[in-house]
Amino acid sequence: MEIVHIINYFAWFIFVFIAVVWILVLLQNRERYPRNVRPKKMPFISVLIPAYNEEDTLEKTIKSVLEIDYPKNLLEVIVINDCSKDRTREIAEKFGNKIRLLDNEKNRGKAYSLNRGVEAAKGGLIACLDADSVVEKGIIKKMIGYFENKQIGAVTPALGVFRAQNFLEKIQYVEYLLNVFLRKTLAFMDAVHVTPGVFTIYRKNVLEDVGGFEVGNLTEDMEIALKLHKAGYKIENNMNAKSYTHCPDKWKSLFNQRIRWYRGAIQNSIKYKYMFFNPKYGNLGMFLLPFNFISVFAIIIIFMLMAWNYLTAISNFIWKLYLINFDLAPLMSSFDWNFALMNLFSSPVLFAFFGLALGAYVLYISFRVNGIEIKSRRPQYFVYLVVFPFALMAFWFLALVHEVFRVKRKW
Amino acid sequence: MARKQLNIRILVSALVISAILFSAGFYTGYSINKQILGSIENDLKKVTADIQNFQLQFLFFDVLGESATCPLLRDTLSNINTQSYEIGNRLVSSGSEGQITDQNEYIILKKEYSRLLTGYWLLAKKLKDTCGLEASTIIYFFSKECTTCDDQGFVLSYLKNRMQEKLLVFALDGDLEEPSVKVLKEYFNIKTYPSLIINGKLYEGFYSVEDIEKLLKTAV
After folding, report:
1. CB-CB under 8 Å, A324 with B209
2. What total of structural domains would you count in chain A?
3. What pLDDT, in 10s, does the model give residues A65-88?
4. Measuring CA to CA, which residue among A252, A220, A52, A39 is closest to residue A138?
5. What interface predicted TM-score (ipTM) does this complex get?
6. Rounded CA gap, A213 and A333, in Å?
């Protein structure tokens, strides 16, 4: 067996292993998925909305926060205007004293804005919300119950896509469904490694303990989560606490977003490499971080091998056709169907089928767990399962290349 | 700092389950492989029996004479023709995928097939001489190291499918340590690959569809 085959099989093994871990955690905790933890106390909560040139969406965002079902005297909204050049400030001012408005003298980035908000916040709990996102009315009540446990440093919501319209958005809708399921599963393992900036609630004193959000980090939402774990805190998740964000509707902007995410993930993994395979960090250190990292290489290897195989097969096919002047008729009539069928079930093909079946099953569970019928989104389900991974594989490959060659980018 | 939650049981179980699934996958692939070789072996037995039948039919000459025996022989020949070609293709394609786990079994089958082919070629030659067969014969010698052999094999397959019983192709693996193949290599003085013996004459190197068509028209 050639070395190429061995590497290929190893890569597939990684994926099978990861999927089996998730399925086992799912089976162990299947009763607990839909549960909400009812809050006994209602602490003061500050919602921070950092905004830079968000005139299109800021109004909806602020409105959805003001409509949250929570005592008005226990909720404050702080908008941090990061020196926007458009009408962001005017739109925020329209809300008068329903919100507090902070201005940065210069454009300083999201992390700096959030840290400013944390400093100015009156609440013991802090929710960070992107200015292009909205939340459901019951979101706070669904999430604060978890804070009764002193070990919990942050609680994450179920993040979905707001109004998926074109096909690309609909595919991402499916991806976010999968992530809702995965995030809850990771919460059962206490291995949540990213706290999305779309209404994750943190304890204020914990944020201060760990030194706030890291300025200049590409993915400060991953960095803060890892910092929380390092300081000994747990991160929980409520799958029913729904928040919605805009996702890229063009391939170019999707590309930019993913390159930033993946490069950030690579940088943060390097920064926190002491957690890898460190039993002190439990499932996060022994499973999530290292296998997420390895699976990236597995993805890239599988992607490159598949691309190579497809390209050589296609060019080989075209060349052969050229040899016989594209006269296909004689070959078609004598095609050895039985034999071709038998060969279809060779090892590499079997593995591909099996991997696909496993992926389809995990995706199916995500739909079920979210209460969505696959029927309603069948085309996107299949495209996400079969086609989208190739795009993501390409993005990971490019992100790795960019990171290794330290390509400079402006975000 | 207190130790973080570590579900060792789940991780180890997942490892074991994944290993079991993988082994099951490999085993299935291996069994299918064996089946493929097994089915090729069965086909070979059938064709060998047909060829022995063919040989026997030559004995009819003395009793029934030329006019009665020749049509019968031509029919049998074209039957053997298609079957043996299919087997040859199966052997080559299952070998090229690199999936054959039992190399020894595979080589034994290839040798058996080569013997069958040489026997078949001899009989076809005899038929041509006695009954006047209208078909052209091409013996095609190939090797693993030759870069154009893959293309040459494909060109011959195409021609064979187009010309049906008017063209008999015998593809022999020049690398095989098989006496009957060696004898033919020496007899035809095969030095490079691919080499084609078209109606008894040697042609070295790659020949395209048009080249071979031209040669077939002039020879016979």
Report:
1. yes
2. 1
3. 999 999 999 999 999 999 999 999
4. A39
5. 0.81
6. 67
Quote the pTM value: 0.79
Q: Do B10 and A350 touch (CB under 8 A)?
A: no
Is the Cβ–Cβ distance between A199 and A157 less than 8 Å? yes
Does B96 touch chain A if contact means CB atoms closer than 8 Å?
A: no
CA B195 to centroid of chain Cα atoms = 16
Say how many CB pairs under 8 Å bridge A and B: 114
Tokens for A288, please give them: 């999530």
Q: Cα torsion at B33, B36, B40, B42 (round to 10°)?
A: 110
Number of C-beta neighbours around residue A114 at 10 A: 26
Cβ–Cβ gap B151/A20 under 8 Å: no
The closest of B82, B101, B80 to B30, measured between CA atoms, is B101
Single out the residue of A192, A220, A263, A290 nearest to residue A50, CA to CA: A220
Per DSSP bridges, beta strands B136-142 and A45-51 are unpaired
| Residue A107 belongs to domain with CATH number | 3.90.550.10
Mark residue A139 as left, alpha or beta (left: phi above 0; alpha: psi -120 to 50; beta: remaining).
alpha
* Contact assignment for A319 to B94 by CB distance below 8 Å: no
pLDDT tens per residue across span B110-142: 888 888 888 888 888 888 888 877 788 888 998
- Tokens 């089928």 sit at which residue? A353
DSSP string across B89-104: HHHHHHHHTT--S-HH
d(CA B9, CA A209): 33
Segment (H or E) for A347: helix A347-370
Minimal C-alpha gap between B17 and chain A (Å): 8
Q: How far is CA A261 from the centre of its chain?
A: 9
Structural domain containing residue A118: 41-166+191-248
Q: Write down the residue that tokens 């591909």 correspond to.
A: A352
Most A-contacting residue of B1, B3, B10 (CB-CB within 10 A), to test interface = B10
